[in-house]
Amino acid sequence: MADTLVALRSLMASHSPPLHALVVPSEDYHQSEYVSARDKRREFVSGFTGSAGLALITMTEARLWTDGRYFLQAAQELSDQWKLMRIGEDPAVDTWMADNLPKDAAIGIDPWCVSMDTAQRWERAFASKQQKLIQTSTNLVDEVWKNRPPAETNPVILQPVEFSGRSTAEKLKDLREKLIQEKACSIIITALDEVAWLYNVRGDDVPYSPVVHAFAIVTSDLAFFYVDKRKLSLEVSSYMKGNGVEVRDYDAVCSDVILLASGQLNPSAAANVTQTEIRKSGETDKMGNGTNKVGEDNYDLIWIDPSSCCYALYSKLNSDKVLLQQSPLALAKALKNPVELDGLKKAHIRDGAAVVQYLVWLDKKVQEIYGASGFFLEAESTGEKKHLETNKLTEVSASDKLESFRASKENFRGLSFPTISSVGPNAAIIHYAPDVEKCSEFDPDSIYLFDSGAQYQDGTTDITRTVHFGKPSAHEKTCYTAVLKSHIALGNARFPNGTNGHALDILARIPLWKYGLDYRHGTGHGIGSYLNVHEGPHLISFRPQARNVPLQASMTVTDEPGYYEDGNFGIRLENVLIVKEADTEFNFGDKGYLSFEHITWAPYQKKLIDFSLLMQEEIDWLNTYHSKCRKILAPYLNESEMAWLEKATEPVRA
Predict the structure, then answer these.
(1) Cys-Cys link to 295, which of 300, 451, 496, 648 (CB 3.0-4.6 A)?
(2) Could you tell me if 101 and 20 are in contact, meaning their C-beta atoms sit under 8 angstroms apart?
(3) What is the pTM of this model?
(4) How far is CA 446 from CA 180, 416, 471, 568, 572, in A?
């Protein structure tokens, strides 16, 4: 790691102009949350493996910014060459740079890996000190990354209408209507899941996210798909042609954006334009003198999403002719159609069966190896292992077994994120990722938290359960019960149309606040239909962006409060919910009201619950939910598994 910093600082010093600082974000060219191996530049330079973070390298310092999910993990993974900056507690990166870098400092970025709105926000922060954001012509990290993984050439596959619910032609028609409404002539689509959703394709370019590295441009009468053509079968190529979509090389998007800005983007136009003409086109456009054929009807705006469009592409446009607005595909994708909702429900039932089968297996295995009391009995374990080496049970071997249960289910396509399988203190690391060489062995006297999910062709899943196989302490039971109360409080909410996730977030925290407890992550995120496990534009969170989008019927969202004690244990409970219209006695303001429908099915561990802390309505909810678990999962379980589930979900009384 030290050699990498030395090499980067050498490149910074020799750069023209010399760079005082270099920003290395987590994102790829599409501002993705999860990225391919070759795009993990921030992980390469810092050693921090979390999905969110930003590295800043100066000539004398190296700092890593990340959020509350990763404070513990980053502290453990960063070497003494790095200083951890805690988002929400320490100064933001732009504030720190403005205050700590010299006047007239040059700050280097790869403009492909920084979004347009982030770059402009930084430029505003630097203006008072005459500091400048410098777009490097190459990524400096790539120059020192000697064994950088190669580009993926995984095949693009079609997502049939039987799973997507709507054809590409229908989606393009709706998108073009949105363009007309906003007086835009075209849109540049950069988010990978939006491209995949629009064209009904999926891929395997990013681990856990079934997307393909691609861009799209759609105009009033044209549509383009920018992708490595080696990934396309004859079937996919024919499908694109049949839907009026022209396939272009992935790298052609930059030159085509310049042509688009000057009104010269036509079918196969790029093949007939020299690089000199492209540069000239871009230059005239930046001066505002380029032609724009569509603009004759004043529909001359080019729509980009400032949060997902990289600065490199935005820089090719005339800023006076750009519509900076959230992509219309973000909301369209979040509002699931009936086919997608049906698929999600079915996927979650199969997934719930896999989780129950895993719990049955785990319960038996822990008792066999450790002589522990197991899932049901609250008793001290013997502390002795019966078969230490032959039956060693670790965080990784357990998570592998969970994956095998999922893999046996219909339409399984892989995991939706790295399984969080965490024992005791590791459960306090919110996004803990067990490593086969360093992971912990099971301890029946400690809490075990597993947060996991799968990609099925008919839906994406995400579930968290927390269990104990020995005798939980009174404190652990109090904390678990508080988290359960929070989970129930949000899941039972009714709220008027127009309510956003920022307003709802407090519902999941009040039961915890009563005990002086809290958590440093959001409470809920959208989830894709065989797409990204984290899907916007809505979310339930204390973060300001949760105010931006109201929840609407047919959205999906998770309900996942938690509590974490550093060095001791962590607790989280998570279900996926569908937002639906609610029946209410009254309808104040004629707004209409919404509520949630749970579609995740797996039991909560009763021996971790202090029932004296639950209200009768919470006990009633738990009994009703457990009754549904039995009924819904019964067709997918064998006799012994069903007997286990019946015991796990027996009704309780206050």
Answers:
(1) 300
(2) yes
(3) 0.92
(4) 59, 27, 9, 9, 15
